[in-house]
Write a structure and sequence with these properties.
The chain is mainly β and about 300 residues long. The protein folds into 3 domains: about 40 residues; about 120 residues, Beta Barrel (Lipocalin); about 110 residues, Jelly Rolls (Sandwich), CATH 2.60.120. About 15% of the residues lie in helices and about 50% in strands. It has an 8-stranded antiparallel β-barrel. A hairpin with a 2-residue loop joins strand 6 and strand 7.
């Protein structure tokens, strides 16, 4: 109940519709809206820059993981042919599709060379390789090559790059397992086989022409093919010493070794070898001393046709 002759006091609560905004308030309101939009835009630009920088760093890390090149390691292997089982991988990486050659060797005169294929996942830093065709080998008669599969992970600590993981495989031309094991490979600058050129040819006779490389100074050589004498105690001159060897499915590998019988008047003993095979010509420069011979290897590969 209300007291007599009294009316309730009703307070009017203003709403937005009946609030009068003067010009000063409008300017202040617009200014705050403008400043808020500017701040939001600035934050968006900074966020975009941060994302771009992060993506750039990720891209750099992926590129830095290129596994192409030369890698060397030693297998843990039970019952292997060699007392020490060195592995060299010569990897070509084409956007994750990997191919190349592998050497399983004791030294450059005792080895098995195979082709491989595989793939590299840069996100997981994982490399998978599967060996296939044996292209050349020089091993004792009782030894049987193992065709291997590798599952490796790329790592880098400081300037040292590694590929580490496991391997398994089958003895060539059988279903018999090789004893599996582990391996760690390290990136190297050049191949252990760099001083032994390898020429791939497809068929037929190979012509060999030996010349003295440079000034004629009385260099004398003996040439061996697979440890059998082909040329004996011949002097190198501007006129070639010519010989022929055969390479085909029955003779898929030929190793030419040039032995220095003397050093001439200007050591060491140097020769230029011109190779003609199936219409193609190759030129090699060989250097040998009385302590070290020079070698070149020929490999038959029908796929070169």
């Amino acid at each position: 109940m209300l007291p007599e002759n009294r009316f309730p006091v009703i307070k009017c609560i203003p709403t937005f519709s009946n609030v009068h905004i003067n010009n000063s308030n409008r300017v202040s309101y617009k200014f705050h809206i403008f400043r808020l939009a500017f701040v939001l835009k600035l934050l968006l630009v900074k966020w975009q820059l941060a994302i771009a920088l992060l993506c750039g760093l990720c891209s750099h890390n992926v590129q830095a993981q290129d596994v192409g090149g030369f890698w060397k390691g030693t297998l843990t292997m039970t019952g292997g042919c060699f007392p020490v089982n060195n592995i060299e991988l010569q990897i070509h990486n084409d956007s994750g599709n990997v191919s190349g050659n592998s050497y399983h060797y004791l030294d450059i005169d005792n080895y098995v060379k195979k082709k491989f294929q595989g793939f590299y996942n840069p996100a997981q830093k994982q490399l998978v390789l599967n060996e296939g065709l044996v292209t050349t080998f020089k091993i004792p008669p009782h030894c049987k090559p193992c065709i291997k599969n590798y599952t490796l992970v790329y790592g880098k600590e400081g300037n040292v790059e590694t590929l580490s993981g496991s391997w398994d495989g089958k003895i060539m031309n059988t279903t018999t397992d090789c004893y599996p094991g582990t391996i760690v490979l390290y990136r190297i600058k050049e191949s252990a086989f760099k001083d032994v050129p390898e020429v791939t040819v497809d068929t037929g006779n190979i012509r060999l022409d030996f010349y003295d490389n440079g000034e004629i100074d009385g260099d004398s050589i003996t040439v061996l093919v697979n440890n059998q004498v082909l040329i004996s105690h011949q002097k190198l001159t501007a006129t070639p010493i010519t010989s022929f060897i055969k390479i085909d499915l029955q003779n898929t590998f030929q190793e030419i070794e040039m032995v220095a019988e003397n050093l001439g008047s200007i050591p060491p003993n140097t020769a230029m070898l011109i190779i003609t095979a199936n219409g193609k010509r190759y030129q090699l420069f060989l250097t040998s001393t009385q302590a070290k011979s020079a070698k070149v290897r020929f490999v038959y590969d029908k796929s070169q046709l």
